[in-house]
Amino acid sequence: MWEDPGVRSVRAVRGALLVAGTTSDAGKSVVTAGICRWLARQGVRVAPFKAQNMSLNSYVTTDGAEIGRAQAMQAQAAGIEPDADMNPVLLKPGSDRRSQVVLLGRPVADVDAMEYGRVRDMLRATALRSLDRLRSRYDVVICEGAGSPAEINLRRGDLANMGLARAAGLPVVVVGDIDRGGVFAAFYGTVGLLEAADQALVAGFVVNKFRGAPELLRPGLDQLRGLTGREVYGVLPWADGLWLDVEDSLALDARPAATREPYGRQTLRVAVVRLPRMSNFTDVDALAAEPGVVVRFVTAAADLDDADLVVLPGSRATVDDLAWLRRTGLAAALPARKGPILGVCGGFQMLGREIVDEVESGAGRVDGLGLLPARFAFAADKVLGRPSGHAYGESVSAYEIHHGVATVDGGEPFLDGCRVANVWGTTWHGALENDGFRRAFLADVAREAGRDFTPAPGTDFARLREERLDALGDLVERHLDTDALLRLIEHGPPELPFLPPGAPDPVP
């Protein structure tokens, strides 16, 4: 965990703040992490919190609780161990209409929208108790909202945005992604759609991902202040290379596309199959951090042609995603290409001979792709753990999150799974974050693929993650009005005007 013996101390500060956003992927997670890192460097005991998270990227705490991966990253930014109170309600969609509810780190039900409404009050009460516990243990809690606070069709049951802010008396800062365009309309519209009691808690705005001339932006910021009566707490510039444990696949759309031009023999090309219900795709972040490794997410069989390694990632809907592989032709392309394949968790299950699932899909017995000698039976209880072991002579620490229990009857041992020729399978997430193991595995992949690639010996993924968190803290310190944020945390929002619905008076 992060620690700094030369930490500077600010005046004693206690309180909380909610970081909301105009949209999903506006930057709430990274701004929350940046504020946590900045406060921790000042000697403030700070913790992150997200009352309800809808994400297929999750993490297992040391005591076996499943929480959103983003909250684990934010806890690292704060220099503390993650725990279930930091994300008391985690929703994991298995289809467009049903989600698994993970409550305080344990799965409790699969519900649709109507069923969710019947347990909503219980979830809200649980979330508020978690927030109270965090506030009793830490000086400051930085809360992250979900989606947008202006989803007026969902306001009645909201427990992550203004519903949380109202219940806990939290000041709110709204983050907007200017790179998408329309950020001023999004800021104004977000406030304008809220009822008066909600508006009273929205203190102001943070502009995210700005690239351009500040003098061209300033008139818009001044007009926004005049129209809303609310402050702009800063403008965060665009920063490359800050991919940190993202919450959902929306963030993948913003990544620069990997070029399809020839890479040269010293470049290793990794194709990650972008399954419809792909989960824990953060497993490949460590691959993307390796010099000379190019990672791209693909959805078509032709995209596998020039790949040295294909990764089948985890899935929240293994049987349905296996059917999607067959519909798209990817299922036929995988064994036909003869190159290295790595299956992780759900991907491992798809590569096996058979899946028996009466739990997740209710499909019963389904044939796998037959590339690995493993059979999987889905159990009602989810396996949650932090396993460790060895492979390629290297120590490996990981985490596991799965209903499918493997029976392996052949092949070479590989972590908790197996290997046959150039196909590997494991249920362990995060294994590739172990530097020695990752380099040895990639060297083996390169040999199998006939690629003249040697992994760089100095890549330290844990250090790289810390450097990225420090970069977020630096952005907050340099570009946000941190004194004003501290006042909000301690004293709440100032008295603010009500913004009536409808168009504002024209600006001359």
Automatic annotation (TrEMBL):
<protein>
    <recommendedName>
        <fullName>Cobyric acid synthase</fullName>
    </recommendedName>
</protein>
<dbReference type="GO" id="GO:0015420">
    <property type="term" value="F:ABC-type vitamin B12 transporter activity"/>
</dbReference>
<dbReference type="InterPro" id="IPR004459">
    <property type="entry name" value="CobQ_synth"/>
</dbReference>
<feature type="active site" description="Nucleophile">
    <location>
        <position position="345"/>
    </location>
</feature>
<dbReference type="GO" id="GO:0003824">
    <property type="term" value="F:catalytic activity"/>
</dbReference>
<dbReference type="Pfam" id="PF01656">
    <property type="entry name" value="CbiA"/>
</dbReference>
<comment type="pathway">
    <text>Cofactor biosynthesis; adenosylcobalamin biosynthesis.</text>
</comment>
<feature type="domain" description="CobB/CobQ-like glutamine amidotransferase">
    <location>
        <begin position="269"/>
        <end position="436"/>
    </location>
</feature>
<dbReference type="InterPro" id="IPR011698">
    <property type="entry name" value="GATase_3"/>
</dbReference>
<comment type="function">
    <text>Catalyzes amidations at positions B, D, E, and G on adenosylcobyrinic A,C-diamide. NH(2) groups are provided by glutamine, and one molecule of ATP is hydrogenolyzed for each amidation.</text>
</comment>
<dbReference type="InterPro" id="IPR033949">
    <property type="entry name" value="CobQ_GATase1"/>
</dbReference>
<feature type="domain" description="CobQ/CobB/MinD/ParA nucleotide binding">
    <location>
        <begin position="18"/>
        <end position="242"/>
    </location>
</feature>
<keyword id="KW-0315">Glutamine amidotransferase</keyword>
<dbReference type="InterPro" id="IPR027417">
    <property type="entry name" value="P-loop_NTPase"/>
</dbReference>
<dbReference type="InterPro" id="IPR047045">
    <property type="entry name" value="CobQ_N"/>
</dbReference>
<dbReference type="InterPro" id="IPR002586">
    <property type="entry name" value="CobQ/CobB/MinD/ParA_Nub-bd_dom"/>
</dbReference>
<keyword id="KW-0169">Cobalamin biosynthesis</keyword>
<comment type="similarity">
    <text>Belongs to the CobB/CobQ family. CobQ subfamily.</text>
</comment>
<dbReference type="InterPro" id="IPR029062">
    <property type="entry name" value="Class_I_gatase-like"/>
</dbReference>
<dbReference type="Pfam" id="PF07685">
    <property type="entry name" value="GATase_3"/>
</dbReference>
<feature type="active site">
    <location>
        <position position="429"/>
    </location>
</feature>
<dbReference type="GO" id="GO:0009236">
    <property type="term" value="P:cobalamin biosynthetic process"/>
</dbReference>
